[in-house]
From TrEMBL:
The keyword Transmembrane applies. PANTHER family: BASIGIN RELATED, FASCICLIN-2. The keyword Disulfide bond applies. It comes from Patiria miniata. Residues 748-767 are annotated as: Disordered. Disulfide bonds join 592-607. Residues 121-209, 216-302, 306-409, 414-493 form the Ig-like domain. This is Neural cell adhesion molecule l1. The chain crosses the membrane at residues 830-850. Residues 703-811 form the Fibronectin type-III domain. Coiled coil: none annotated. Pfam families: fn3, I-set, Ig_2, Ig_3, Ldl_recept_a. CDD domains: FN3 (cd00063), Ig (cd00096), LDLa (cd00112).
Length: 994
C-alpha cells in the first residue's frame, strides 16, 4: 500500500506537470504604503525543481540576510513538506518609494513578474485641530482638511445635505480645503473629508463638526443718559451672535474693572456707575465679541449738577422800610436754569405785583449787594405787617431743584387776630369753656389777662372764680373757666411788646334755659296717638341770644291724675354726615336730589337755586380757579371746604341742616284713656320751663291707620322696592302683617287698580325697625303701576296707603283692554269656520315659505320647475355647463388670478394623462387628497370609473383642451346623479337632484 504522501506527490505531478512558477499574492500590482512591509512568495510548482530566486527592479538578486540581503530586503528559502515543492519568500520592510517597481521570480528557466507599487499613504496632518471648525454666517467660510500623500490623491467631501460637488457655492481647493460661499445656517453640521489614491483602493476620512458663527451685532446699544450728581446711572447693552458674545465695557481704551465705582451685572449687559461726580461725564463703550468678530457702540453720560441756592437770609424791618432778597445759585449747572420766588403756596411772577410795592426783576453785575449774572431779586417797599413771612427762592435745572427760605420779620405793635379770638361767649353755671386771645406782632407779644379790669395772675382769683391760663409761644393764650355764679363778668386780654400795647375785650354773658312754649294743644287723637301742637317761646331769635338756639323739645305726658310721667324727646340725633327729618336720618348726599326721602319732603327744601350751584352750596369767596360749588354733604361736616369756612358757620348749619321737628306726636298710648301733657324747649343749657298742662282722650280700639309709603324712583326695569313706615296708630293692637295689591294702569295719576291686580303679603322685619321693605319682581318695563298698601291687625285692615310709579325702560306697555277686537266681536266669539280658515291659510303660507327657501338655496322645488318650464329660466344643469365654459374663458383673459391658477392645474392633469396610467394614478390620488376634490362616498367609485375612461379616450384624442376635459368631467359628474361640491374661482357651484 502506497504511503499517502507518495499518492499526494503523484497527484501534484500529474496535476501540475505543465506548471512553472506561482507568485502569491496573485496581484498584477501589489500596493504597499511607503515605510510599510510586504511579503510575497514564489513557488516552483515543478516537484524536484530548483529553488526560485527573486530579482529586484535594479536586476540585483535578493539574497537572505547576510547573504546578499538586508534586514529591509531579504528572502527566506523553504520546501513544502507536503508537496516537496520549493518556494522562496521575499520580505520587504520600511519600503521606500525608490524600492517600488517590477520584481522577477525565476527558476529552471521560468520567470514570473509582480509589480510592487510603493505609494505615499494619505495622512492627516492636524487631525485633532481640524475635527471642530466654524464658519461665519453670510460670509465665505473655509473648512480645512490638511492631508499628505500622493500627488494624484483625490479629495471628496460630504456635507449635512449629502455629497458636495465642486462648483456653485462650493470650491474644493488644492490645499485639501472646502470653501463655501455665503454661509447659511443650513451649512452647519457634520462634514466628511475623504482622501483616496486612485487604483490603490485606500482612503482616509476626517470627520469635521462645523458650526456656523454669527458676528455679534449690538441690537440695543447704550442710550445717552442724564443723571444727577450723587446718584447712579446705568447703561444697557444687548447683542445677538453665535456663540453668545462676551461683554466688555471701556472708558476710552481702558477696561472698566473698579468694583467700587462700576457695577457690571446681567452677564455684562448692564453697567452701573455709582456715586456720580462731574468727572464721570464721558462716553462709555460697550464691546461685544466672539470668535467670529466684535461690535462696539457708545453711550454718553451727562452728569447734571443740581442747584445750590445762595445762603438764606432773615431780615427784621420796621413798618415803612424796604427790603431786597436775591435768588441765585452758588453751585450747579446754569444751563436751563430757572429761578423763581414763592410766597407760601403762591408763585410770584416777574415784574410789578398788584399793589406796586413788590417788584421782581433780573439782576446783573457783582458786588456784596448784587446778584451774579442770571440772578433775580425781590424788592418790597413801604413794608407793612402783612408782608412778613417766608419768601422762598426756588431754583431748577436739569439736575433737579432746590429751595432756600428768606424770612422777613416786620416789627410792629400787637394787633388782635379776630378770627381766632373770642369776642362774645355765653355760658352757664357748671359749664367749662375757654376764652382765647391771639395777637399778631413782632417781637411776639406777651399776653396778660384781666377780669373786670383787674389783673388775673396764676390760676385762682377771688373775683374770677376757678380759672387756668395756658400761654403759647405764638402770641396766643387761652383761659379755661369752670363757670360759677360769680364768673359772669367782663374779661380783657392785653398784647404787649416793645413797640406797643393793645387790649381786647371779651363779653362773658350768662345763658338761660328756654322760657315755656305757648299755645300748647292737641290737634288730633287716635286709639294710640295724640298729635301735639305748640308755638316756640317768645324769647327766640337774635333779640334774645342769652337763650341760645333750640336743640329740640321734650313732651311730658301721663294718664290723667297719675303720678308717673313719661317723656317724649324730639331732638336731632343723627350723625354729622346725616340729615334728620322727624324720626328718620338720611345721608346728606340725598338732599336736593329731586327725590323725596323725607315724608314731608323737607329734604328738597332750602336747596340753592343758583344756576351754577343747583342742589349744592356756593362758597361766598372763590379760591383761585377752584369750583366754589360744594356738595351739600360738605356743609357742617366739621371740615372747612370754603376758604373762608362759610360752609361750617352756624348760619349755614342752621339754614341747611336745621333739625326738623314736625313729628310731635305721642305714640304707644292706650286706647280710650284721658292723658295730660306739657311741653318744654331744649337748648344747650338744658330743659326749659314747662308749659301748662293740657289734656286729651284717645279713641277706642279699631283698625290701624294707613301706612306711609315713600315715593321713590325705580332703579331697574323689572324690579321695584316698596319702602314704608308703620302706621302711627296701630288701633290698639299690634300690626300682624301688610298686604300689597298692585296692577298696571294706563296713566300715572290713576287712583284705582286696573284689571287682574296681584296681591302680595309682607311681614314685619323686626319689632323695632321703623322702616319696612318689600321687593316686587317681574314687572313690565315702561309700564305705569298703581299700588295699595294695607296694615292688618286683629281689629281689621287699615285704609290703603297708595303709590303711583312707572317702571323705566321702553315705551309704556298698556294693560289688557276690554274693548272688542272688531265691531261687536271678541276672540272667544269667533265661529269655527273662521278658525279653520286661519289654520289652512297658515299651512299654505308655511308651504310657500319652504318652497321659496328651497328655490333660493338649492335651486329646486315647485317654484324652480315653474321658472324652468314656463318662464324659460335656465336649468341648474345648464347653468353649471355655462359656468364651466365661462371659467375656461376667464382663464384666457388674465382677469382673475385664481382662475388662471386653476387652469394651470387642469393642464397639469391633462399632461399627466399622456404619461400613462401610473401617472394618472398618482395625479388622481393627490387630487383626491385635496379637500376641494373630495366626493361623497356613494359617488366616488362611479366618478373614478367615468373619469378613467374619459382620460383614456383623451390619450387617443390629443386635440382636446384641458378646459374641454374639465367640461366633460362636469358632465360626467351630472350623469352620476350625485351631489358634488368644489371651489370654482372662489365661488361655490353645487348641484343636486331636483
Amino acid at each position: 500500500m502506497f504511503p499517502w504522501k507518495l499518492v499526494l506527490l503523484l497527484a501534484y505531478a500529474v496535476g501540475f506537470s505543465d506548471a512553472a512558477l506561482k507568485i502569491e499574492p496573485i496581484y498584477a500590482t501589489f500596493n504597499v504604503p511607503e515605510y510599510g512591509s510586504a511579503t510575497t512568495t514564489c513557488t516552483n510548482l515543478d516537484v524536484g525543481g530548483s529553488q526560485p530566486e527573486w530579482v529586484d527592479p535594479n536586476g540585483q538578486i535578493v539574497g537572505p540576510v547576510g547573504g546578499g540581503g538586508s534586514t529591509d530586503k531579504h528572502v527566506s528559502l523553504h520546501v513544502d513538506p507536503t508537496t516537496a515543492q520549493r518556494f522562496t519568500r521575499m520580505h520587504l520592510s520600511n519600503i521606500l518609494k525608490a524600492s517600488g517597481g517590477g520584481y522577477v521570480c525565476r527558476a529552471d528557466g521560468e520567470t514570473e513578474n509582480i509589480n510592487i507599487n510603493v505609494y505615499i499613504p494619505v495622512t492627516l496632518l492636524d487631525e485633532d485641530g481640524e475635527k471642530s471648525q466654524w464658519m461665519t454666517y453670510h460670509e465665505s467660510g473655509s473648512l480645512k482638511c490638511t492631508m499628505h500623500g500622493e500627488t494624484n490623491t483625490v479629495v471628496s467631501w460630504d456635507g449635512p445635505m449629502g455629497p458636495i460637488a465642486d462648483g456653485g457655492r462650493y470650491l474644493i481647493t488644492e490645499m485639501f480645503g472646502l470653501t463655501i460661499d455665503n454661509v447659511t445656517l443650513d451649512d452647519e453640521g457634520t462634514y466628511n473629508c475623504r482622501g483616496s489614491i486612485p487604483n490603490v483602493g485606500v482612503a482616509t476620512v476626517l470627520q469635521i463638526e462645523a458650526a456656523v458663527y454669527m458676528i455679534p451685532k449690538i441690537r440695543y446699544p447704550p442710550i445717552n443718559k442724564n443723571a444727577t450728581e450723587g446718584t447712579s446711572a446705568f447703561f444697557n447693552c444687548e447683542a445677538i451672535g453665535e456663540p453668545q458674545p462676551t461683554y466688555t465695557w471701556y472708558d476710552g481704551s481702558l477696561v472698566l474693572n473698579d468694583p467700587d465705582k462700576y457695577l457690571i451685572e446681567q452677564d455684562g449687559k448692564r453697567l452701573t456707575i455709582l456715586n456720580l461726580v462731574k468727572d464721570d461725564q464721558k462716553r462709555y463703550t460697550c464691546e461685544v465679541s466672539n470668535p467670529a468678530g466684535l461690535d462696539r457702540r457708545d453711550g454718553e453720560l451727562t452728569v447734571d449738577i443740581p442747584p445750590t441756592p445762595v445762603r438764606a437770609v432773615t431780615y427784621e424791618k420796621d413798618q415803612g422800610e424796604s427790603v431786597k432778597f436775591y435768588c441765585d445759585i452758588q453751585r450747579g449747572d446754569r444751563e436751563n436754569l430757572k429761578l423763581q420766588f414763592k410766597r407760601y403756596e403762591k408763585w410770584l411772577p416777574m415784574g410789578v405785583q398788584v399793589d406796586s410795592r413788590i417788584v421782581i426783576q433780573e439782576e446783573t453785575g457783582t458786588g456784596p449787594d448784587a446778584g451774579q449774572p442770571g440772578s433775580i431779586s425781590l424788592t418790597i417797599t413801604d413794608i407793612h405787617r402783612g408782608d412778613e413771612g417766608d419768601y422762598t427762592c426756588f431754583a431748577r435745572n436739569n439736575g433737579g431743584y432746590a429751595m432756600s427760605h428768606n424770612i422777613l420779620h416786620v416789627r410792629y405793635e400787637p394787633v388782635i387776630n379776630n378770627e381766632y379770638s373770642t369776642r362774645k361767649v355765653f355760658s352757664w353755671v357748671g359749664h367749662q369753656l375757654n376764652l382765647t386771645c391771639h395777637w399778631f406782632g413782632y417781637p411776639v407779644p406777651t399776653v396778660l389777662w384781666f377780669v373786670n379790669n383787674q389783673p388775673l395772675v396764676g390760676t385762682v382769683g377771688e373775683v374770677a372764680g376757678n380759672a387756668t391760663i395756658y400761654d403759647f409761644n405764638n402770641g396766643s393764650s387761652s383761659l379755661f373757666i369752670d363757670t360759677s355764679t360769680n364768673d359772669f363778668l367782663p374779661y380783657q386780654c392785653d398784647g404787649r411788646n416793645k413797640f406797643g400795647r393793645n387790649r381786647h375785650h371779651i363779653q362773658f354773658e350768662r345763658a338761660y334755659p328756654m322760657k315755656r312754649p305757648t299755645n300748647v294743644q292737641a290737634i288730633s287723637a287716635s286709639a294710640t296717638t295724640i298729635e301735639v301742637s305748640f308755638d316756640n317761646p317768645v324769647e327766640v331769635g337774635a333779640d334774645y341770644p342769652e337763650y341760645l338756639r333750640i336743640l329740640g323739645y321734650v313732651i311730658g305726658y301721663s294718664e290723667y291724675q297719675q303720678p308717673t310721667e313719661m317723656y317724649e324727646i324730639v331732638q336731632n340725633k343723627c350723625l354729622p354726615t346725616e340729615f334728620q327729618c322727624g324720626r328718620l336720618c338720611i345721608e346728606k348726599d340725598r338732599r336736593c336730589d329731586n327725590f323725596m326721602d323725607c315724608l314731608d319732603n323737607s329734604d328738597e327744601e332750602n336747596c340753592n337755586a343758583d344756576e351754577d350751584c343747583t342742589g349744592g352750596f356756593k362758597c361766598p369767596v372763590r379760591d383761585g380757579n377752584r369750583n366754589p360749588c360744594l356738595p351739600i354733604s360738605y356743609v357742617c361736616d366739621k371740615e372747612p371746604d370754603c376758604v373762608d369756612g362759610a360752609d361750617e358757620s352756624e348760619e349755614s348749619c342752621t339754614a341747611y341742616f336745621r333739625p326738623i321737628f314736625y313729628d310731635t306726636r305721642l305714640t304707644g298710648l292706650a286706647p280710650d284713656r284721658l292723658y295730660q301733657f306739657r311741653v318744654a324747649v331744649i337748648n344747650e343749657v338744658g330743659w326749659g320751663e314747662w308749659s301748662f298742662n293740657t289734656s286729651e282722650r284717645t279713641l277706642g280700639y279699631g283698625p290701624p291707620s294707613e301706612p306711609m309709603i315713600f315715593n321713590r324712583e325705580p332703579d331697574r326695569d323689572t324690579i321695584y322696592e316698596i319702602v314704608w313706615l308703620e302706621p302711627y296708630d296701630s288701633g290698639g293692637s299690634p300690626i300682624i302683617s301688610y298686604e300689597l295689591t298692585y296692577s298696571p294702569v294706563e296713566t300715572g295719576d290713576a287712583t284705582e287698580l286696573g284689571r287682574d291686580p296681584e296681591t302680595a303679603s309682607a311681614s314685619k322685619d323686626s319689632d323695632t325697625a321703623p322702616v319696612y321693605r318689600h321687593t316686587l319682581t317681574n314687572l313690565k318695563p315702561g309700564t305705569f303701576y298703581f299700588l295699595e298698601l294695607r296694615a292688618q291687625s286683629t281689629w281689621g285692615k287699615s285704609e290703603p296707603g297708595t303709590l303711583n310709579f312707572r317702571m323705566p325702560g321702553g315705551a309704556p306697555v298698556l294693560p289688557p283692554s276690554e274693548e272688542p277686537l272688531g265691531p261687536g266681536l271678541r276672540i272667544g266669539e269667533l265661529p269655527i269656520s273662521a278658525f279653520i280658515g286661519i289654520i289652512v291659510g297658515g299651512f299654505l303660507v308655511i308651504l310657500i315659505l319652504l318652497d321659496c327657501l328651497c328655490y333660493c338655496t338649492n335651486s329646486c322645488g315647485l317654484t324652480m320647475c315653474i321658472c324652468v318650464h314656463l318662464c324659460g329660466k335656465q336649468a341648474p344643469e345648464d347653468k353649471e355647463e355655462a359656468e364651466a365654459v365661462e371659467y375656461s374663458m376667464a382663464a384666457s383673459t388674465a382677469g382673475n388670478r385664481m382662475a388662471m391658477q386653476r387652469l394651470a392645474e387642469f393642464e397639469t392633469e391633462s399632461n399627466a394623462v399622456s404619461d400613462g396610467a401610473s401617472q394618472y394614478q398618482s395625479l388622481h390620488a393627490s387630487r383626491m387628497a385635496d379637500d376641494r376634490w373630495k366626493l361623497p362616498t356613494h359617488a366616488t367609485y362611479e366618478a373614478d370609473r367615468l373619469l378613467q375612461g374619459q382620460l383614456e379616450q383623451h390619450s387617443d384624442s390629443p386635440s382636446q383642451t384641458p378646459s374641454e376635459i374639465r367640461l366633460q368631467e362636469l358632465q360626467m359628474r351630472k350623469l352620476g346623479h350625485y351631489d358634488y361640491d368644489y371651489d370654482l374661482d372662489r365661488s361655490t357651484v353645487s348641484g343636486s337632484r331636483c
